[in-house]
Amino acid sequence: MRDQALALVGEGGPEYTLGPCGNEWESEYIAFRVCGTFRVPLFMGSPEPGGSLLFGDDGLPAVNRQEPWADIPFELNIPKSASPDNPAPSVYYGHGLFGTREQIHCGGSQPNPSFINEYNYAFVATELQGMSDYDVQTVTLLLAVGHISGLETMFDRLHQGFVNYLLLTRMMKTSFAADETYGRYIKGDEAYYYGNSQGGIMGLVFMALSTDVERGALGVMGQPYSLLLFRSVDFNTFLDAIKLHYKDYREQQLIIGLAQMLWDRVEPTGYTHHIRENTFPNTGAKEVLSRVALGDHQVPTLGGHIMARTLKAPLLDQGIREVWGIPTVAHTDGGSFYAEYDFGLPGEPLCNVPMSLCGDPHTNVSPRTSAREQLDAFFRFGTGTNHCRVGDPDAHQVPENGVCSYPSIAGCEMGETEEDTQALCQP
After folding, report:
1. Angle at 423 between CA 418 and CA 427, to 5 degrees
2. How many of the other CB atoms lie within 10 Å of CB of 271?
3. What mean pLDDT do residues 334-346 have?
């Protein structure tokens, strides 16, 4: 699908049309908020949720003959730091669980606009079809009526979604970089990937397939989904829908295990081992920064360990702990690395349930000054460095030198302990 799509859009890149953004807003960090659509080959019977892939006589995905093209919405933030003399590299941003492209300008706990203005990056995004806000109703309904096999349409949509991701990045390096109005603010020969939560998880699929990005950063990520789901508070709503028809815990495990066989085609388990070695044809090796928050309620660090070991990425020493099967290094001059941040939680359950004590640290990594500096250094130079230090201008907690620990943020107000955590495993 990737190769067909890139061939169809040609060397000039995808066509695009600009339009109003709606919900206009002022920002001290963003010079231009650009919205529009870009044109992609459509491999689906319908571009709407619930559609299925089309296949040719050779058994491979084929472009829709009646409706060969689809116009996909995108959004781009160009920071005030960008100028014709100092154009910004583009960063494809992967949104969170069943999220939207508008997460590129999240404030509060994930201040993307301030980051891109301080370090001069342009963030661009579209929805990941199959697991975006537009798909929630379809997926929830299928689970609620017990039609588990109908989830195949979600996995089919994800195939199209990743093609869209790849073509949007190609657009930023080609056709949009030549735009008469905004192209001079974009550094067309430089692009990266950055995603958090679902965007961190799914980022490895994009990285393995991309021919336009060499480095990518993944926040609060892990694999595979069949492991992550039952250890995530985010899955509770979907699990409640499954329980309406499948009340036995063993049936629920079996259903997700079976679904994983379809998910492998469009989630990290099918792609992580193609990132640095055994790359796909005509695809270069990539390097990845991956980071987790200890005690995460939404994505367990166990999944992050599996991902890091599969990547053969070392653990960057940030004064937290050792991790089984992952060698620890003090610094990397290049290559992939894995990092952990501590927020004072007492540890994660050793059983197949979510961590739910104290405050959820899921969104606490990316806003840290040390994490922002680390991300920028990795993008620009490919290096892995511990930026936690005394005097870190962080709003909540000044860590000890070299120890990336911010215990005042976690919200453990009841004196929760490791014993309390393991009590979550009791039936």
Report:
1. 160
2. 23
3. 95
Query: What's the pLDDT band for 397 if we cut at 50, 70, 90?
Result: low
Strand order across the 69-79 sheet? 16-19, 30-41, 69-79, 122-125, 88-94, 186-196, 215-219, 287-293, 337-341, 315-316, 328-329
Phi and psi torsions of 243, nearest 5°: -65, -20
Tokens at residue 401, please?
């030198």
- What is the amino acid identity at position 402? G
* pLDDT for position 392: 62
- Classify the C-alpha dihedral 323-328-330-333 as positive or negative: negative
Give the whole-angstrom CA distance, residue 195 versus residue 427.
35
Of the chain, the percentage scoring pLDDT greater than 90 comes to 89
CB atoms near residue 117 (< 10 Å): 22
Nearest C-alpha neighbor of 423 from the set 346, 360, 369: 346
Q: In whole angstroms, what is the distance from residue 129 CA to residue 152 CA?
A: 13
The residue with tokens 């430089």 is 190
Angle at 53 between CA 273 and CA 101, to 5 degrees: 70
Q: What is the DSSP letter of 134?
A: G
Torsion of CA 300, 301, 302, 303, to 10 degrees: 70
Q: For 89-102, how does the pLDDT look when each residue is reduced to its tens digit (9 = 90+)?
A: 999 999 999 999 99
The whole-angstrom separation of Cα 416 and Cα 289 is 31
State how far Cα 177 lies from the chain centre.
24
Please state whether the peptide bond connecting residue 224 to the residue before it is cis, i.e. omega within 30 degrees of 0. Answer: yes
- Phi and psi at residue 125, in whole multiples of 5°? -160, 155
> 30 is written with which tokens?
């963003």
Banded model confidence at residue 110, pLDDT cuts 50, 70, 90: very low
Beta strands in 80-116 (DSSP E): 88-94
Helices 152-173, 249-263: axis angle to 10 degrees equals: 40
> What's the whole-number mean pLDDT along residues 382-406?
78
DSSP annotation of 398 reads -
Where b means 16+ CB within 10 Å and e means fewer, 339-353 reads: bbbbbbbbbbbeeeb
